[in-house]
Design a protein that fits this description.
Blueprint: H1 13-26, H2 34-51, H3 58-63, H4 67-77, H5 81-88, H6 99-110, H7 115-127, H8 150-169, H9 177-181, H10 190-205, H11 209-219, H12 225-232, H13 236-260, H14 268-282, H15 288-297
Helix pairs in contact: 4-5, 6-7, 6-8, 10-13, 10-14, 11-15, 12-13
Amino acid sequence: MVEKMADEPAPPTARVHLLYHFCRLQLPSVVMAFPKFQDHLERSRRLFAAKSETSVEWSGYFNTLYAVDWYMCCGCLENDGKAWEALFSMRTGRSDNLLIDALRARAMRLYPRDEEKQEGAVTEFWSHLIVTDHPGSIPIMARYDGQRPLAPWMVRVFQNWHVSKLRSRHGAISLPEDDIALPLPEKTDTRWHDSFCIAARDWLATLTDEEVLLLGLRWRYRLSQREISHLFKKHEGTISRQQDKLRDRCLSAIGEKLTAEGWTGDDLEEFILTELGSLMVDEPRLSADQLTVLLAQRGMHVGEST
């Protein structure tokens, strides 16, 4: 857990009281004693500060806090039944689906054609929200810092959590624990996300079937370069160069479009690569069914790994 520093400044009392009554007004059924509320506030602020590269003032933390989502999360950590009811009825932003339905939809993409695994994935994730699977680990809900909407955060955590499990199962390096429970910050606004999706899908549409297969084998099936070179009957160095070219073309094509629309940040490459992982989950040409077809056309076969 994140420990409290002795020299940490105390939160402004008046604003803490104001926040407390605001949360109680918005979620009157979720009852939390004020001292417990203070404990959670200081805990989550320390959590956020530990992830930030710069110092975090209380005023800055308050200004960007998703207060109702955060209070609901704290209520769940306290095992408040009304808080769990509110969580069950949460809706995701872009599709307005219930959170549980959004998780099931994500499970369908992670485990295609395996209904038992899809349902089990959601149930397993839900059971670990406030209970850890090994000593010393922090429950998933206890990693939420309140600095982004809760529902999309949970969908991203769900995806990363199961991707890490898949990677571990097939001998690949798992995602670091922070990547599982603390997804990459969603600092960009909706405009850049939408612009990225358009540019990325335009780039994906230019890929040949062989390039799609190469990308799918590396990303969805998580094969090594050596395994892919064996399937393609090509030298491993050739596969490496093809992958590098794909990456360079991706960054160039998408980067040029975002720059033309006014992107001025210094982390364009990181943004592209971060967003691309989520988009590929929904890309029809990279679905397990389509990759199976491409493999069959070439007389290849790979055991299902997702």
